[in-house]
Backbone:
């Protein structure tokens, strides 16, 4: 059984930033990467292939985590001007995300740390560095930590709750592995349906 909490980081971003456009995508049950691909590449949903979706995924995470036009151009193998246009289009589509990034960097620079939604704190001394590359790293960490750190908190809670719920149900299914936002379970064949319902819940 593989319980994939796909796109959890972008769901956390939608919540933290208050970006309604992103929230609406999730509330409609749409694939956020496919939705971004449609917007960025001007393609109808039915015409989005795995390659375009993969590029959109890179745009979604790259821009949020501080990828420059140069870095995005390099990753997507496109001209830098086109990458800059993607970034501008993304920022126009998700203005609250852009505000969240700026606000988070500013607050972290003042306080010297950021926290996850569950209150876990990470100090970021890099933000006070006089060296631009180090300060730039600090900015990326400042934005990344509330999102990825909260996602990590969520998956840890899910691991504890899923294990407890499976045991309470008297099942022999067991959690064997966590891979980022995915949990892998091992189950006797006759428990797969019941265990899947519990794990997904």
Residues:
């Amino acid at each position: 059984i593989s319980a994939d909490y796909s796109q959890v980081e972008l769901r956390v971003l939608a919540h933290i930033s208050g970006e309604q456009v992103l929230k609406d995508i999730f509330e409609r049950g749409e694939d956020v990467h496919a939705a971004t691909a449609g917007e960025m590449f001007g393609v109808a949903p039915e015409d989005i292939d795995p390659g375009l979706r993969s590029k959109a995924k890179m745009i979604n995470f790259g821009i949020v985590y501080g990828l420059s036009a140069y870095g995005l151009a390099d990753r997507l193998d496109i001209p830098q001007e086109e990458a800059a246009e993607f970034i501008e289009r993304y920022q126009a589509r998700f203005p609250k995300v852009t505000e969240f990034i700026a606000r988070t960097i500013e607050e972290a620079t003042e306080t010297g740390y950021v926290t996850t939604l569950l209150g876990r704190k990470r100090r970021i001394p890099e933000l006070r560095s006089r060296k631009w590359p180090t300060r730039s790293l600090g900015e990326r960490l400042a934005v990344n930590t509330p999102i990825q750190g909260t996602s990590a908190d969520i998956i840890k809670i899910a691991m504890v709750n899923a294990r407890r719920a499976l045991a309470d149900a008297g099942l022999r299914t067991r959690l064997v592995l966590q891979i980022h936002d995915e949990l892998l379970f091992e189950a006797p064949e006759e428990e797969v349906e019941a265990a899947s319902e519990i794990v997904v819940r």
About this structure: The CA atoms of residues 65 and 140 lie 6 Å apart. The longest strand covers residues 174-179. Confidence is low (pLDDT under 50) at residues 1-6.
